[in-house]
């Protein structure tokens, strides 16, 4: 049997101005909020929990956007699962947690210029193209 990969569930969250929530990690890359799927939760529960822990936002998981394999470090592969997420109106500004170096909101047109895995960019484009449906 081959090596099992960890699963990381990420969320594309847009604020009222349609800006994308991103976090800068220790590798100086921007990433979507999210994290490791725990044994007792569904992927949707995981993404909601992680968004809350990392930004203070109470989001709702929407549709599955994409799955892909990411290798952040040589030999360390992670299965990434991304969801489009909805944010209630009048949400407060996001707050930075201890898990990241920086937190920011970006207009979709700035995403391509950021240092970020292409898979995240694809998920952001997909959710923005759907017009934050549902």
Structural class: alpha+beta
CATH architecture: Alpha-Beta Complex
Q: Going by CATH, what is the homologous superfamily?
A: Nucleoside Triphosphate Pyrophosphohydrolase
Number of helices: 2
Low-confidence stretches: none
Query: Can you tell me the CATH class?
Result: Alpha Beta
Tell me the Rg in angstroms: 14 Å
Walk across the major sheet and give the strand order: 4-1-6-5
**How many individual domains?**
1
- The proportion of residues in beta strands is 35-45%
Number of strands: 7
Please report the distance between the alpha carbons of the first and last residues: 40 Å
Give, in order, the helices and strands.
EEEEHEEEH
How helix-rich are the residues, as a percent range? 10-25%
Overall geometry: globular
Give the mean pLDDT. 91
Q: What features would you describe in this structure?
A:
The protein is an alpha+beta fold. It is 19% helix and 35% strand. The strands form two sheets. It has a four-stranded mixed sheet with strand order 4-1-6-5, with helices on both faces. Strand 5 and strand 6 form a beta hairpin.
Could you provide a short overview of the structure?
This protein has 134 residues and is α+β, with helices and mostly antiparallel strands. The chain has 2 helices and 7 strands; from the N terminus they run E-E-E-E-H-E-E-E-H. A 4-stranded mixed beta sheet has the order 4-1-6-5, with helices on both faces. It has a 3-stranded antiparallel beta sheet with strand order 3-2-7, with no helix packed on it.
